[in-house]
Amino acid sequence: MPITLIVNGEERATQAAPMTPLLDVLREEFFLTGAKAVCREGFCGACTVHADGIARMSCLMPVGLAQGCAITTVEAIAADGVLSPLQQALEDHDVVQCGMCFPGMVMSLTKFLEQNAHPSRDEMKTALAGNICRCTGYERIIDAVLALTNAPQAAE
Ligand code: FES
Ligand code: FES
């Protein structure tokens, strides 16, 4: 019996075994390769997606648990090819190095900023704890996000 899920607003089905990592189904069946397979052990955050509005590491989520879930991947963050404000801020500050961590960073930070629109520097450091950047660009990422959230248009 297929497992059905809503991926980026579209109903999708897979015959994958229920314990197959969601990450593998997204990448290998649905060709959504934004979520990266790096550690596959829940340490790096490169595979982060949103599942029913919660940031989850898709390498640790069996696809059987995603039955009926709304899954959002990084491919859906830029609507109609227009970068989200977060993506634009990261781009404007030229923070991307190899880029391997960035899909996960974007997914984690998008969810974080929904919950805390004006984070402090320390809160940003905590928010990034689950996303490892091997190029060690953390300070520039934080600078970019704080520039976005402290911009006049971001003020409440
Ligand atoms: S690939 Fe999932 S946490 Fe690293
Ligand atoms: S930019 Fe290379 S791992 Fe983060």
UniProtKB/TrEMBL annotation:
MF-aspect GO terms: 2 iron, 2 sulfur cluster binding; metal ion binding; oxidoreductase activity
Alphabetical list of PROSITE patterns matching this protein: 2FE2S_FER_1 (PS00197), 2FE2S_FER_2 (PS51085)
Tree of life domain: Bacteria
InterPro entries reported for this sequence: 2Fe-2S-bd (IPR002888), 2Fe-2S-bd_dom_sf (IPR036884), 2Fe-2S_ferredoxin-like_sf (IPR036010), 2Fe-2S_ferredoxin-type (IPR001041), 2Fe2S_fd_BS (IPR006058), Beta-grasp_dom_sf (IPR012675), Diverse_Oxidoreductases (IPR051452)
Keywords: 2Fe-2S, Iron, Iron-sulfur, Metal-binding, Oxidoreductase
Pfam families, per the entry: Fer2, Fer2_2
Domain 2Fe-2S ferredoxin-type, first and last residues per copy: 1-77
Listed name of the protein: (2Fe-2S)-binding protein
Organism taxonomic ancestry: Bacteria, Pseudomonadati, Pseudomonadota, Alphaproteobacteria, Hyphomicrobiales
